[in-house]
Write a structure and sequence with these properties.
about 375 residues; alpha/beta; 11-stranded mixed sheet; 8 helices
């Protein structure tokens, strides 16, 4: 499987070679968090639920569907989760039910989405959804022999600047899919496409709309929704992680930055977090501006602080072979990790490529 993976990497390297503008300093910022800049466009839209997309053109619930896979978000459920107790028993939305927000214990029993126990007509293909007054496209990769009674993990995977969902699918969802299959696991993968070259403010609403639709129409574990992405995809992953902690259990940013991306008002609630940065990355560097706290270093420090970790005097880093540092004394539910290596702006390093290996190790512990 690894050999097959690497046989498809040539186009990835070519595409990655021109993403240098993704984290380059903007002329100005539109908020106090160092995000936004030239890419902060669009408007906020409230999350809405979804109807049922069917290949035959029929629809149920509050949305509509067509044979082309087009879906229109309906009014759907909320994020209130299930009923209280030591472990939630209700299906609810993407909330965490009876647990305090963000305090889901490691190894918890799955919490099924509303779509569990219901037949679905979703298949592996591109779909269209109405979000913020636009038709937006996204790709869904369904498990083989999908079981409507099994709450699967769900991965929300965001592409890099100037690319589309096809590029993420072409990399087997950042090479996570073959890692999982080697362990005998399957998951639901969702890969949206941006409106234009970059992710924007309205893509928070897109996440909400897609997840509301998925909640009604497929069976997944609402406490095991994960997010990942490379470069600008890592940046939107970081952006979502700052205010979607109740919906996203854990996130991995591959070469992310904390500027030149729209950032919401941060809730500073905990979330399990990991990211990777090459110490020679001039596109999304470890430190872009120390005084303004721009750079991947400050993402690590922010997440460590939010997760109750002990902050070291200096984060151990590596300019050679990759090295992963686990912050100490974090909330047990919120491991916090950063990996550095002597490389540039890439999601491919070494043979075998350690980045998806470490990503899957991080995700599968939950």
């Amino acid at each position: 499987m690894q050999d097959q993976t690497f046989s498809r990497l040539g186009f990835c390297v070519t595409l990655a070679s021109w993403v240098a503008i993704s984290c380059a300093p903007a002329e100005s910022d539109s908020n106090n968090d160092g995000g936004g800049g030239a890419t902060a466009t669009g408007s906020v839209s409230s999350a809405s639920g979804g109807g049922v997309a069917t290949s035959g053109g029929s629809a149920s619930g509050s949305g509509v569907a067509t044979s082309s896979g087009t879906t229109v978000a309906g009014t759907g459920g909320d994020n209130s989760g299930g009923s209280g107790g030591a472990e939630p028993s209700g299906s609810g939305g993407a909330g965490v039910g009876g647990w305090p927000e963000g305090a889901i214990p490691m190894g918890n029993a799955p919490v099924p989405s509303a779509g569990c126990g219901k037949a679905t007509t979703l298949t592996t293909k591109e779909y269209t959804i109405s979000s913020s007054g636009q038709n937006r496209v996204y790709y869904v990769d369904m498990p083989r022999n999908y079981d409507m009674n099994k709450p699967y993990r769900l991965f929300y995977t965001s592409h890099w600047i100037g690319s589309r969902w096809q590029d993420v699918e072409g990399q087997d969802f950042y090479f996570l899919k073959p890692q999982m299959e080697a362990d005998g696991e399957q998951a639901i993968f969702v890969a949206p496409s941006s409106d234009g070259a970059t992710w924007q403010q309205k893509d928070h609403a897109l996440f909400d709309d897609i997840m509301a639709f998925m909640n009604e129409n497929v069976c997944y574990d609402t406490t095991r929704v994960f997010a990942t992405g490379f470069s600008f995809g890592g940046m939107i992953t970081y952006s979502l992680s700052t205010n979607h902690q109740a919906e996203i259990r854990a996130a991995v940013g591959i070469a992310p930055a904390n500027y030149n991306i729209w950032l919401p008002e941060k809730t500073r609630k905990p979330i399990a977090w990991m990211h990777m940065t090459g110490m020679s990355d001039g596109t999304c560097p470890w430190v872009n501006n120390e005084a303004q706290k721009r750079g991947a270093k400050f993402i690590a420090l922010e997440k460590a602080e939010d997760n109750g970790c002990t902050i070291p005097a200096e984060i151990p880093t590596s300019n050679g072979a990759y090295r992963c540092y686990d912050f100490q004394d974090c909330n047990p539910e919120h491991p916090t990790r950063v990996c550095t290596f002597g490389g540039g702006h890439t999601n491919i390093d070494g043979n075998p490529n350690w980045i998806p290996i470490e990503s899957w190790k991080f995700f599968k512990q939950f």
